[in-house]
Amino acid sequence: MNKRAAITTQTKQNLIDAFWFLYCDMRIEKITIKDITNKAGYNRGTFYEYFKDVYDVLEHIEDSLIPSLDELPPITIGSEMRGMPTNTFLELYENNSKYYAVLLGDGGDPAFASKLKNAIKPIIIQEFANKPTVNQQELDYVIEYTLSAMIGMMSYWYRQTDKLPSDQLHELIRKLTEQGVTRQLPAL
């Protein structure tokens, strides 16, 4: 990478970091371009070289967090490989936890969970596309339920001060996914 490209990349990252610092403590409606440029040490013109507004910065961050097809290895269902394993999902979440914890938290972007699910869901649906016995409409609901539960559990886990070890969380998600919720509840 030449020196100019490195400076350009660093400038953009500085603006993103300044935005993120502000976003962690403020609602996006309250963040101004002036706030970002003051924090990053640039002028408004520099901001507009990279982004059109504060929402564009947030969208850039969110898009960078959506896993691509090559980041999603197969899911294990029973002894067959089908789609994405929960440990890979957890690993993606852990690698970007500073962003996911905020974006999926109470003050984050409510649309981000949908973006995340909508990026992953077609990959899983494709695994079942040629199965004649699969009700595609029901499958869509099952996948929505599963992804919502996984995202919800990981978000909850990151907000806790006394967390389960990650391997226990992974095992609990696996058991809930494979055996269902009622089998995990204590008998009454």
Describe the structure.
The chain has 188 residues and is mainly α. The protein has two domains: 57 residues, Tetracycline Repressor, domain 2, CATH 1.10.357; 117 residues. The chain has nine helices and two strands; from the N terminus they run ααααββααααα. A hairpin with a 2-residue loop joins strand 1 and strand 2. The longest helix is centred in the last third of the chain and has 24 residues. It starts with a helix and ends in a 9-residue tail after the last helix. About 4% of the residues have low confidence.
Structure keywords:
Tetracycline Repressor, domain 2, two-stranded antiparallel ribbon, 9 helices, mainly alpha, 188 residues, 2 domains, 2% strand
